[in-house]
Amino acid sequence: MAFFSRNSTALVSEFFLICCPNYQSWQHWLSLPLSFLFLLAVGANITLLVTVRLEASLHEPMYYLLSLLSLLDVVLCLTITPKVLAIFCFDHRAISFPACFLQMLIMNCFLTMESCTFMVMAYGCHVAICKPLRYPFILTDQFVAQAALFVIGRNALFSLPVPILSARLRDCAGSIIKNCICTNLSVSKLSCDDITFNKLYQFVAGWTLLDSDCTLIILSYFFILKVVLRIEVEGAVAKALSTCGSHFILTLFFSTVLLVLVITNMARERIPPHVPILLNILHHLIPPPSSRFGIRNLLKRF
To answer: Rounded to an integer, what distance in angstroms lies between the CA atom of residue 288 and that of residue 85?
Structure first.
């Protein structure tokens, strides 16, 4: 992929990522905790994937969805963290244009894929509590396969224009990105072209996907709560809450962290610029959400 600067006829083939410009002297110290968290996140998720693959008793729809969530976590970690660690440890700031826009695509696509997977899992909880007799006939392997295709197809379709719109802009402000990762806004700011449509598309597409997922999750738990409050059998409420409680907490954590990221990015002028950058990195590492949820459920099974 080749890009040319508006102010120069020379071929520009890479960007340079500048993490926390005002605090570069202590960046290498951050590599230690980040390395530990990276190994923990990847190791825990891979352990979960291998366990579900090898243990026949876990070949169930909800564990397949949990495996999909873990796979998304692993890809996000491998897409972002190694490059950040290379910058912090070895000062390797250069990133090629294709790698930059691929990173942008994966971040936008897989984040909404996680949200969509939470929505499908919430529907599974809804069926388990509200329609328990129909659960084996609704939550089938075929349903999981169709849900996975929907998760991948919907979010890839809406996320693909983000890096394409950013890549078509003409660069006239150099090749230095003041971020640890290739976000749409960070790259678009290097252009002298009007980036209003880029910002508008990402905002509308992102919030349309996330809001629709959030709305359906809330509706699912509304109906779950409605049914649970009507249950009069002793211990049934506790069992119902045990079935869906972990998923609800996981979804709440995901939504809360995402909200914090949005707020910090909106308040950039009132907080140090490195804060949203570090939060964006840590969002993919602390804690490894699907692995914690999955391992907790695995321990219940054995």
So the answer is: 18
d(CA 61, CA 285): 26
CA distance 63 to 68: 9
Question: pLDDT tens digits, residue range 11-66?
Answer: 557 888 887 766 666 677 778 888 888 888 888 889 889 988 988 888 888 889 88
Written as six digits, the tokens of 46 are 């891979």
The secondary structure of the chain, three-state, reads CCEEECCCCCEECEEEECCCHHHHHHHHHHHHHHHHHHHHHHHHHHHHHHHHHHCHHHCCHHHHHHHHHHHHHHHHHHHHHHHHHHHHHHCCCEEEHHHHHHHHHHHHHHHHHHHHHHHHHHHHHHHHHHCHHHHHHHCCHHHHHHHHHHHHHHHHHHHCHHHHHHHCCCECCCCEECCCCCCHHHHHCCECCCCHHHHHHHHHHHHHHHHHHHHHHHHHHHHHHHHHCCCCCCCHHHHHHHHHHHHHHHHHHHHHHHHHHHHHHHCCCCCCCHHHHHHHHHCCCCCCHHHHHHHHHHHHHC
pTM: 0.83
Q: For residue 284, what are its two tokens?
A: 């993919």
Q: What residues contact residue 208 under an 8 Å CB cut-off, 6+ apart?
A: 158
Sign of the Cα pseudo-torsion (102, 284, 69, 214, in order): negative
Count structural domains, the chain.
1
**What is the residue range of 165's domain?**
3-301
CATH number at residue 70: 1.20.1070.10
